[in-house]
């Protein structure tokens, strides 16, 4: 019951008309506050003994005193599960076999989860045939924790519920007017169950079209294969079965035909019983493949066509008239000779996006009966058809498309004619984008169906015919997402979950009685149909007939005719770090140095030195060491991109330039810092990666963030030791792998001898003694280890400006060196021949010359991390003993002890120590993944997140070795060989990095330590590192 | 000693005789159940779901036979229900279906192994009258406690009075003596005023210097001590959201630490047990014994039963089933190692076989858990220096132990000799 009592504060309130009450209601103070009295009197203020500064001092002091007095730790809460899942033990990692398949990268992987959070991607060693995880796959775990993901389904810009989404879209799909198509525009989905689902959808709705779209197309390859063998696919290559490899523009260590060929290639690059494969590369851009080749011939894209046609005529026969420069013609002739002598041990591949070129390659391999060439097993990781995509855009513009449903594609960014697509989109009645991001495309669509990340989804894939891979969720979906297939099931009125649908599909069609759960557990499954079922049955006969009709060499002649060049030619390529650009918001990948240019956070036009000089383009290092490059305006067929930065690329063919896809994103799905570079897709007209181009110099200089400022070895052959196969096979190891010597009492003594050692040797015979071997022959420089190290060790991302200041934090870098002469050997000779300071052979001018790389240099890669010296120079200079030596060979770094003098980094001959100039976590100045709660979920809880002002470096993954030891102790058994792994050695699919305990005399690493090829980096310094390198052997003897 | 043995013997004879008597009595009349036997059967078979006086997963069973008889159900029906309730329900028995539906269609386990006599025994146990509430018995005990308190006060009071009297006596004696002195004419000699001691001290520079040094050193010592204990939370004993008594669980009940903290065996974390582990036991333990309850109230001011109810609230247990309405408990973490220090429980617990109490103190006596050890690096290092590695029967250590003992010339290796003092073993 409310009361009618009235409270009054003064008698005045009883008087209804009192002015005082009125005034008090308006203003709390009846009288004006005399602020002027104490602030207005300037003199008094100035003469006051307590100045403003004093006041602040007192406040500061009392605050400090109060906080010191209240020196108590925060209260930390621990919240256990209500019902703990049986498979989760806090502190113990679980591994799940799953698949990363995002339309561009495909790999069967193991995912390490801690307390239910996926934190790292590792290779699935059971997946022998499905390739290994590359740098982008390794980095994709960070995409799961991207704060800019679409978190709920959206209609326009507003979030809606799934119920609304389903009811609205279903009624709209049902209400489409007759005659209008429903089109699925998806990335390549080699998923058996999804394809069945789409066909079920088609039979329900009718008039359904499925267009597969690869942002970076392999359509020519697919068309050539289809014409020859009758089904759409790509022939499989196993480079481990090839003795001679000739590639014409095929970057098969990169993303050529879906990628994943590098582990097979690397197997044959390690000399075994005096034999290794020989690799000849014809290309225009300097690619990773070209950098690894024994012989690299730079030539423009149009010359590539001629060279391939010529090669065909020389190997298979048939006359093709080509006009090639003499040196190239000779190289082609020599390649042909080598192919012929190798016979079926040879293989020829090409990356020219032309049906004729691809047909020629298929025909050569068929003619050779190449062992490495397997047309029966098709690779299914690229399936797009350029024609179908073009047709779709035309249909959309004509208003024939009623509903457009995209999944995993971003045509508004990746299509060269994105504006046409946008026009067409306006005429589509219903547009639904299944997307993880509100990207360029999705933001223009009517509905966005928020999809989960690969690590939150179910899925099945047939990477190669008969070789299946299974995707299972490793975490509950973080957001309110549904995968494409689930929605398809709902649209078709199927109540089953997608998981059960896959299971049913597999049980009926694939497993052939094998266990589904086993397939999920293994993540991979090899079907019995792998060999039994010839994929090319239907239509193959007709194409055979066609083959008979066309006389041999037709394709080659057509190819030769098609080669036309006028002026500069542009080759568009994908970078190892960025691929097609869908992971552009991944700071690990942005900061990943390109293996060739060693540049981060950018794409750029690669120009040869000759062309750059002709156009007046320069690259220069400025005072702070940063690299600057000229800008150019690039025009292709009327489309111009202004201010493209230029990198002068040694090895770039004269008359050609290169530009990488994947940059120049503009959508709001990326943080501002990630919107780097220019969008090369606008040049990708007719899906042709080669375009005629005009390049004009523009004003201004671009600031690159390049992590390697010095490009040549300057004849210091002991950094990367290398030799050729002939010397390696015939000469003693002291000739090609000489241990440096110093003079002791006028007797040359090897530096490894204890007599010349300043230090007393530690006793390392007891317990474990870890060594890491890096085989420079097997290392292709792919950088998977760099990202794996990033993920394992919580290495921070520092951003472009800091990278430019050489403050990168990578614990593991892959140095890339060019030769100054045509070969590194010639560099060494040149250096040896210096005499005196001046003159023709003077060292003063000579060394200056040697700083610039050759036009077509030899390239060498060398992964360098902390060498864990047994006599470590860093340890002796630390004033606080923060870095100390462990008995197991690891050089320890105690962050909590470090005071940041940086003496150790100065004294390190390998320059592998990294200093935390800033606080890189929870700092708005470094707004990358460590700055939001979601991104921090990827951190490895076993490794400290470093703070500002401390030094850090490679720990040789001590958290992993300690875990292995502890596991063995708990089981009460010795550690087996191969159990010890570092993040980099586990990530290396090429077998270039081997880690282990050399005190275990039967281990692989102990054997490698005694190998003839073994050497230490900068051995003459006498640091006795625990990282060993294997001398690079080039198969150049026949040159 | 002998007496004890005799007493045991007597009790054994007595109980044997009792059992004999019972056996005969049962053979005489099968309808008479044996409540003692029935109790053990009840505990073995029924107690998981039933209590005598409280509904649990199943209904309470006190006087169940009598209550069923009111419903018109005889022993035959009870036998059939217990041996296979499901069959009875399926057969369409009206009361069986009624019960089944009343209890959310929770099926009762079948007990075909129970003989008629077993059932009789169980029913006899359930038919026992409810014991008088123990609280009543508690009254006098509590009263006794109170009396004890009063007597303590009394003693203290008496002592105070005594001291007062003594002091008075002293004053009186002094006054009397003074009076005597006055009477005898003796005058107290007044001391001549020399230099005050403080001035003498101030004028002696050497003494001043020594004192200053002493004070500086002393304050330095204390300041250092103060700073060194910053961040050391030894004795940290926060109030937890649920009053959980390690004393009762680990001490009185003797539950193994690793029953609840099971991940200590395999993981770096010992783990705070999830609530389902608590419910393994507390599903059927909803209140503590009267003595424990009283003890909690008097000694610790805690109502243990209320705390168990807190657990039920958190886990969402309404006494019979989980409601699904759970609320995780936000425990306050006591042992906080900094991020840069790596510690692994399984290394110490499983491999080294160290008792939990070595680091965590007498947990079985702690009513509320507190931090026993300082958890400083010096404390870790000391232990590593002194503790021998347990190498016996561990295949991992065979080789390394042999080589290291040769190197150091010792039989037993300490953790330090094994490399346990290296920075990188704990800091990475």
Description:
Chain A: Residues 770-800, 889-918 form the 4Fe-4S ferredoxin-type domain. The complex is a heterodimer of chains A (1039) and B (428). Chain A is α/β, with parallel strands linked by helices. Among the domains of chain A are: 232-379, Dimethylsulfoxide Reductase, domain 2 (3-Layer(aba) Sandwich), CATH 3.40.228.10; 566-704, Barwin-like endoglucanases; 769-816 and 864-1034, Alpha-Beta Plaits, CATH 3.30.70.20. Chain A has a seven-stranded mixed β-sheet, with helices on both faces. A six-stranded mixed barrel of chain A has the order 21-27-23-26-25-28. In chain A, a hairpin with a 2-residue loop joins strand 31 (741-744) and strand 32. The longest helix of chain A has 18 residues, at 52-69. The N and C termini of chain A lie far apart (106 Å). Among the domains of chain B are: 35-127, Orthogonal Bundle (Cytochrome Bc1 Complex, Chain D, domain 2); 197-230; 376-427, no CATH class. In chain B, 57% of the residues lie in helices and 0% in strands. Chain B has helices at 2-28, 35-46, 64-70, 75-83, 85-90, 94-102, 116-126, 134-184, 197-203, 205-228, 246-252, 257-260, 275-282, 290-300, 304-315, 345-351, 356-360, 377-386, 397-408, 416-420; one strand at 331-332. In chain B, helix 13 crosses helix 15 (304-315). Chain B contains 20 helices and one strand. At the A-B interface, strand 1 and helix 33 of A face helix 13, strand 1, helix 16 and helix 19 of B. Strand 1 (77-78) of chain A pairs antiparallel with strand 1 of chain B, so a sheet runs across the interface.
């Amino acid at each position: 019951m409310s009361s009618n009592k009235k409270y009054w504060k003064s008698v005045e309130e009883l008087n209804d008309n009192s002015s005082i009450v009125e005034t008090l209601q308006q203003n709390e103070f009846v009288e004006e506050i005399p602020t002027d009295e104490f602030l207005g009197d300037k003199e008094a203020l100035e003469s006051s003994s307590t100045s403003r500064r004093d006041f602040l001092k007192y406040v500061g002091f009392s605050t400090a005193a109060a906080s010191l007095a209240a020196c108590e730790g925060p209260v930390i809460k621990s919240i256990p599960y209500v019902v703990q899942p049986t498979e989760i033990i806090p502190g113990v990692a679980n591994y799940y076999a799953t698949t990363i398949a995002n339309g561009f990268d495909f790999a069967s992987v193991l995912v390490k989860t801690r307390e239910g959070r996926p934190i790292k991607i590792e290779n699935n060693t059971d997946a022998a045939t499905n390739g290994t995880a590359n740098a982008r796959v390794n980095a994709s775990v960070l995409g799961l924790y991207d704060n800019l993901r679409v978190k709920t389904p959206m209609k326009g810009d507003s979030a809606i519920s799934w119920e609304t989404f389903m009811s609205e879209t279903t009624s709209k799909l049902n209400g489409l007017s007759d005659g209008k198509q429903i089109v699925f525009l998806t990335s390549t989905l080699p998923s058996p169950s999804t394809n069945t689902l789409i066909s079920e959808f088609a039979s329900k709705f009718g008039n359904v079209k499925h267009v597969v779209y690869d942002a970076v197309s392999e359509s020519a390859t697919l068309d050539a294969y289809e014409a020859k063998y009758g089904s759409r696919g790509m022939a499989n290559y196993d480079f481990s079965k090839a003795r001679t490899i000739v590639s014409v523009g095929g970057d098969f260590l990169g993303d050529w035909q879906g990628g994943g060929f590098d582990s097979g290639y690397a197997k044959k690059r390690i000399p075994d019983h005096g034999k290794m494969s020989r690799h000849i590369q014809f290309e225009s851009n300097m690619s990773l493949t070209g950098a690894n080749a024994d012989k690299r011939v730079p030539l423009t894209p149009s010359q590539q066509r001629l060279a391939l046609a010529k090669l065909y005529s020389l190997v298979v026969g048939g006359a093709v008239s080509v006009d090639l420069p003499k040196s190239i013609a000779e190289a082609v002739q020599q390649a042909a000779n080598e192919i012929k002598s190798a016979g079926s041990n040879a293989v020829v591949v090409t990356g020219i996006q032309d049906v004729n070129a691809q047909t020629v390659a298929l025909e050569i391999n068929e003619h050779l009966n190449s062992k490495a060439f397997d047309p029966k097993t098709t690779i299914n990781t690229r399936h797009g058809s350029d024609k179908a995509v073009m047709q779709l855009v035309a249909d959309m513009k004509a208003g024939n498309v009623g509903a457009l449903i995209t999944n995993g594609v971003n045509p508004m960014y990746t299509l060269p004619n994105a504006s046409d697509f946008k026009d067409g989109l306006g005429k589509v009645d219903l547009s639904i984008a299944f997307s993880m991001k509100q990207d360029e495309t999705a933001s223009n669509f009517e509905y966005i169906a928020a999809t989960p990340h690969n690590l939150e989804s179910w899925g099945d894939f047939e990477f190669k015919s008969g070789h299946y891979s299974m995707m299972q969720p490793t975490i509950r979906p973080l957001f309110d997402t549904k995968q494409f297939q689930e929605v398809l099931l709902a649209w078709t009125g199927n109540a089953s979950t997608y998981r059960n649908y896959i299971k049913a599909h597999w049980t009926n069609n694939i497993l052939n009685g094998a266990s589904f759960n086993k397939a999920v557990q293994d993540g991979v499954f090899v079907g019995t149909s792998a060999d039994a079922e010839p994929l090319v049955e239907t239509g193959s006969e007709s194409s055979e007939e066609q083959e008979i009709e066309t006389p041999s060499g037709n394709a080659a002649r057509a190819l030769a005719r098609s080669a036309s060049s006028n002026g500069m030619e542009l080759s568009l390529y994908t970078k190892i770090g960025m691929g097609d650009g869908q992971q552009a918001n991944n700071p690990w990948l942005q900061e990943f140095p390109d293996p060739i240019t060693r540049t981060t956070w950018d794409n750029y036009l690669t120009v040869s030195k000759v062309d750059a000089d002709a156009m007046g383009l320069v690259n220069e290092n400025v005072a702070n060491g940063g690299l600057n490059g000229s800008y150019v305006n690039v025009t292709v067929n009327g489309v111009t991109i202004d201010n493209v930065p230029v990198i002068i690329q040694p090895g770039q063919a004269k008359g050609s330039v290169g530009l990488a896809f994947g940059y120049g994103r503009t959508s709001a799905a990326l943080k501002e810092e990630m919107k780097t570079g220019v969008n090369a897709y606008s040049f990708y007209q007719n899906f042709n990666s080669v375009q005629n181009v005009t390049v004009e110099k523009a004003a201004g200089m671009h600031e690159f963030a390049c992590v390697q400022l010095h490009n040549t070895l300057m004849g210091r052959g002991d950094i990367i030791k290398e030799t050729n196969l002939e010397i390696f096979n015939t000469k003693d190891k002291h000739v090609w792998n000489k241990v440096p010597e110093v003079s002791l009492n006028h007797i040359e003594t090897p530096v490894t001898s204890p007599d010349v050692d300043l230090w007393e040797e530690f006793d390392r015979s007891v317990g474990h003694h870890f060594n890491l071997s890096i085989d420079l022959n097997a290392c292709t420089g792919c950088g998977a280890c760099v990202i794996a190290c990033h993920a394992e060790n919580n290495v921070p991302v520092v951003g472009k400006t800091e990278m430019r200041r050489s403050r990168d934090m990578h614990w593991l870098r892959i140095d890339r060196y060019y030769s100054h002469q045509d070969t590194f050997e010639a560099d060494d000779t040149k250096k040896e021949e210096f005499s005196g300071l001046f003159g023709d052979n003077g060292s003063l001018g000579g060394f200056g010359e040697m700083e610039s790389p050759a036009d077509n240099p030899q390239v060498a890669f060398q992964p360098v991390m902390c060498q864990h010296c047994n006599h470590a120079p860093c340890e002796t200079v630390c004033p606080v003993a923060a870095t100390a030596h462990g008995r197991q060979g690891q050089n320890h770094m105690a962050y909590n002890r470090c005071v940041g003098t940086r003496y150790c980094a100065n004294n390190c001959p390998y320059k592998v120590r990294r200093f935390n100039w800033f606080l890189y976590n929870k700092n708005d100045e470094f707004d990358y993944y460590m700055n939001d709660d979601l991104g921090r979920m990827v951190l490895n809880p076993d490794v400290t997140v470093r703070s500002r002002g401390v030094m850090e470096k490679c720990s040789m993954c001590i958290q992993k070795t300690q875990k292995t030891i502890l596991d063995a102790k708990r089981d009460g058994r010795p550690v087996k060989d191969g159990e010890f792994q570092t993040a980099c050695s586990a990530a290396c699919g090429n077998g270039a990095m081997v880690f282990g305990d050399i005190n275990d005399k039967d281990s692989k690493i102990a054997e490698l330590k005694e190998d003839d090829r073994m050497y230490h980096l900068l051995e003459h310094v006498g640091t006795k590192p625990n990282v060993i390198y294997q001398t690079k052997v080039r198969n150049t003897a026949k040159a | 000693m002998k007496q004890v043995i005799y007493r045991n013997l007597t009790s054994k004879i007595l109980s044997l005789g009792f059992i004999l008597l019972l056996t005969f009595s049962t053979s005489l009349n099968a309808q008479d159940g044996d409540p003692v036997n029935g109790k053990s059967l009840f505990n073995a078979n029924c107690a998981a779901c039933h209590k005598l006086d409280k509904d649990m997963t199943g209904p309470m069973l006190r006087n169940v036979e009598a209550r069923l008889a009111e419903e018109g159900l005889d022993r035959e029906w009870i036998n059939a229900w217990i041996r296979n309730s499901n069959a009875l329900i399926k057969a369409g028995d009206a009361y069986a279906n009624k019960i089944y539906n009343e209890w959310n269609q929770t099926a009762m386990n079948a007990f075909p192994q129970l003989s008629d006599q077993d059932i009789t025994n169980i029913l006899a146990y359930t038919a026992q009258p409810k014991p008088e509430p123990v609280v009543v018995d508690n009254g006098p005990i509590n009263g006794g406690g109170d009396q004890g308190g009063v007597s303590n006060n009394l003693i203290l009071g008496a002592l105070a009075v005594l001291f007062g009297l003594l002091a008075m006596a002293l004053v009186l004696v002094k006054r009397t003596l003074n009076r005597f002195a006055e009477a005898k004419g003796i005058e107290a000699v007044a001391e001549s005023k020399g230099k005050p001691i403080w001035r003498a001290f101030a004028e002696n520079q050497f003494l001043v210097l020594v004192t200053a040094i002493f004070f500086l050193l002393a304050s330095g010592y204390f300041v250092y001590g103060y700073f060194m204990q910053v961040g050391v939370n030894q004795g940290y004993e926060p109030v937890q959201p649920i009053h959980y008594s390690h004393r009762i669980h680990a001490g009185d009940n003797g539950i193994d630490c690793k029953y609840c903290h099971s991940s200590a065996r395999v993981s770096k974390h010992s783990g705070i047990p999830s609530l389902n582990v608590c419910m393994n036991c507390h599903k059927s333990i909803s209140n503590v014994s009267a003595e424990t309850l009283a003890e909690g109230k008097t000694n610790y001011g805690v109502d243990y039963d209320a705390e168990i109810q807190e657990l039920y609230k958190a886990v969402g247990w309404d006494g019979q089933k989980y409601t699904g309405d759970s609320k995780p408990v936000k425990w306050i973490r006591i042992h906080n190692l900094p991020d840069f220090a790596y510690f692994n429980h399984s290394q110490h617990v499983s491999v080294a076989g160290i008792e939990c109490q070595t680091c965590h103190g007498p947990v079985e006596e702690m009513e509320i858990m507190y931090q026993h050890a300082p958890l400083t690096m010096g404390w870790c290092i000391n232990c590593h220096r002194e503790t021998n590695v347990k190498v016996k029967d561990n295949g991992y250590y065979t080789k390394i132990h042999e080589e290291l003992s040769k190197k150091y010339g010792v039989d037993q290796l300490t953790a330090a000799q094994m490399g346990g003092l290296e920075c990188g073993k704990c800091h990475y």
